[in-house]
Design brief:
The protein is of the alpha/beta class. It has three domains: 2-20 and 232-348, Rossmann fold; 24-226, 3-Layer(aba) Sandwich (Rossmann fold); 383-409. The protein has helices at residues 9-17, 24-40, 42-52, 66-73, 78-96, 134-147, 166-174, 185-194, 211-220, 245-256, 271-281, 297-307, 317-320, 340-345, 384-396, 400-409, and strands at 2-5, 63-65, 103-106, 110-118, 121-125, 151-155, 179-181, 204-206, 225-226, 234-239, 263-268, 289-293, 311-315, 331-334, 371-379.
Length: 410
């Protein structure tokens, strides 16, 4: 782990991200794939699948219906099934607290309501590494279930052997997924956004992916809803010298497991302790991790807020006291025992989080992402006072028929 002064942190974050959730190269590559899928549908998706995932993929391999998923799920090992059940229960319990509630107001002339309605069709992106990610099925599927979405379509890359992972199938069953579309990245985003012969378009696309996926979501966002830009994973750990160095080394190495583009940084006001952690890390991943010495931990917290990363970990007693001051991150983990990995699987919060600095305005995936809100207005009684005020404003804006429309109701 290379150790630098905190002044180098902004430059390193910018370099690691390429300027944001994605760069020009990812945007241009994603745009070419989106255009191809929009024109060619499943055939264009299949060309991408054959190039990146499985050379021998056939058209019929793209779609797996619910019945086939149920059959595949029967082979899920008992230990994994039990673990997924526990994770599902905890995620469900937390997200049920997020159920949207109608807002209403009544007075002598009006009844006003802001009413939530579940989206009809949602596409969830579930990326794939060396194996499938059933945890991401739960993270995208549970809030969809709680919201009452009618159809959840999950897109996940096809493995090289074309098999269906029983754990993935079991997770899809738990969340009531309608079908599995076996493609990933920009091709999956385009197929969900615009539809193909085998896949009807969705109302919104949610879920994480690589920088090409994030770029594709941004490109299609004028035509379909998206949740947030969720590109390569990020961790900024703020640690005081009383944190356990070996435990924190595991946290940083866990972040490096996310693969290419993942960013992990450790900031502390204790230079000696930083060297201890660097020694504990060792190995091949050390060059991908960064350490920074801060003047004090408050300066470290300011740097974390400026970066607005996906995850912030506050390790050690002194670092944990800064929790209320770190408010620009997808998720904040407070205390050495609160490993970020728990949030990835079983804590109960959602691991689909904004990246690339977009946590400045964006949020964790939540139930509200799966509903739309409609204003409902019912006016009655004596409307002269409202009409007079509304007509005055409309007249000032030279909206003469607006003025007449309200005056006619008075």
């Amino acid at each position: 782990m290379r150790i630098s002064e905190l002044s180098a942190f902004p430059r390193d974050v910018h370099r690691a991200r390429g300027g944001g959730a994605f760069g020009a190269a990812e945007r241009n590559a994603a745009a070419a794939i989106v255009r191809a899928v929009r024109r060619g549908g499943d055939a264009a998706v299949l060309r991408t699948v054959r190039r990146f995932d499985r050379a021998g993929a056939k058209p019929e391999d793209l779609i797996v219906e619910a019945a086939a998923l149920r059959r595949a799920a029967r082979a899920c090992p008992h230990e994994i099934r039990h673990a997924l059940d526990l994770a599902y229960a905890r995620i469900l319990a937390f997200h049920e607290r997020q159920r949207p509630c109608e807002a209403a107001r009544r007075d002598s002339v009006a009844e006003l309501r802001l009413a939530p309605t579940p989206l009809r069709r949602v596409g969830a992106l579930v990326p794939r590494g060396t194996s499938s990610y059933p945890s991401t099925v739960l993270m995208t599927g549970v809030p969809s279930q709680v919201a009452g979405v009618r159809a959840l379509l999950v897109a996940s890359p096809m493995p090289p052997d074309g098999s269906i992972d029983p754990a993935l199938a079991y997770a899809l069953q738990l969340v009531g997924a309608t079908l599995l579309y076996r493609a990933g990245g920009a091709a999956a985003v385009a197929a969900l956004a615009y539809g193909t012969r085998s896949l009807a378009r969705v109302d919104k696309i949610v879920g994480p992916g690589n920088a090409y996926t994030a770029a594709a979501k941004w490109l299609v966002s004028a035509d379909v809803g998206i949740d947030a830009l969720q590109g390569p994973s990020e961790l900024v750990a703020l640690a005081s010298g009383d944190a356990d160095a070996r435990t924190l080394a595991f946290d940083l190495l866990a972040q490096a497991e996310h693969g290419a583009g993942a960013f992990a940084a450790l900031i502390s006001d204790d230079a000696r302790w930083l060297r201890v952690v660097a020694k504990a890390i060792g190995g091949a991943h050390a060059q991908r991790l960064r350490g920074y010495r801060a003047r004090d931990l408050r300066a470290a917290a300011r740097a974390a807020n400026d970066a607005a990363p996906e995850h912030v970990l506050l390790a050690g007693r002194r670092a944990a006291t800064l929790a209320d001051g770190v408010d620009r991150a997808g998720a904040v983990f407070i205390g050495t025992r609160s490993a970020v990995a728990f949030g990835d699987y079983v804590a109960g919060t959602n691991h689909a989080l904004p990246t690339g600095g977009t946590a400045r305005w964006s949020s964790a995936l939540r139930v509200d992402d799966f509903v739309r809100w409609t204003s409902r207005v019912s006016l009655r009684g004596d409307l002269r006072r409202l009409a007079c005020a509304g007509a005055a404003i409309a007249g000032h804006e030279a909206m003469h028929y607006h003025k007449a429309s309200m005056e006619a109701r008075a």
